[in-house]
Amino acid sequence: MTVKYIDTYGKNWSVAVTGMLSFAYCFLILPFQIPLAIYSTINYRDLMSTQFLTDKIITLLSLSVPVTILAIIYSVWKQRRNIKAFTSFFRESELCAPSPQNIAMNRTGWGYLGLDTRKGTLLYINHPDTTIFNFFFPRDVRVMGFGMYDWKSIEVEGNKLTIYTGNPELPTVAITTGKAGEMLEKINAMRNQNWSYEYNIPGCVELQAKNIAERNGINLVLPPK
After folding, report:
1. Alpha-carbon distance 223 to 87, whole Å?
2. Global pTM?
C-alpha cells in the first residue's frame, strides 16, 4: 500500500482518452464482436485453413473477446471490492452507516457516496484518473469524509453531484448517479439542522482510510501537501 499525494484535479488526458475509447468499444463494438467470436469458435478449423489472410486475422481478433469480457468483469469486481473494504469498516464503526436509500453509486461501481442522516456524515469514495493501469486494474482509491460543516456547497447538474470541498488542492469531487437530485435534497435538509461532532470527520476518515488501505493492499490517493 502507498499513500499518493498527487494532483488529480487536472485532467489526465491519456487516461481520459483510454477510458473514452474503452467505453466506446464496450458499447459500440463488443456487442457485434461477441456473435462473431461464437461463429469463429465453432468454425475455427475452417476459417484458419482458408487462403484469405483477412479471415484468419478476424478469427484471431474475435477469440480475444473472452479475455476482454473477463477484464471488464475483473475491473468492476475489483472496484466494488475496494469500496466495500472502506464502507464496511465505517459502517461497523458507525462513523457513516447510511441506509440503502441513502447510498448512491455510479453505474460501474467506480464511485460511491453515502449519507448517514443520523450522524450527519458523508462518505465519498472513488477511483481517480491516476494511470491507465489503474483503469484496468483498480488500486488507487480516494476516500473522503465530511460532516455538515466540512464542505462549502453542493450542486447538481443533470445526474452529476458536485461537492465543493474548500480545499484549494482539490476544490471539487463529483459522482454521476441517478440519485443526484434526491441526495442533494436530503443534504440540504440536513444542513439546516444543528450538528455536533466528537472529532474532526475529514481527519478521522483519512486516518482510518490509511489503515484500511494498508490491510487491503490499496493505494490511498490524497491531495498534494
Report:
1. 21
2. 0.83
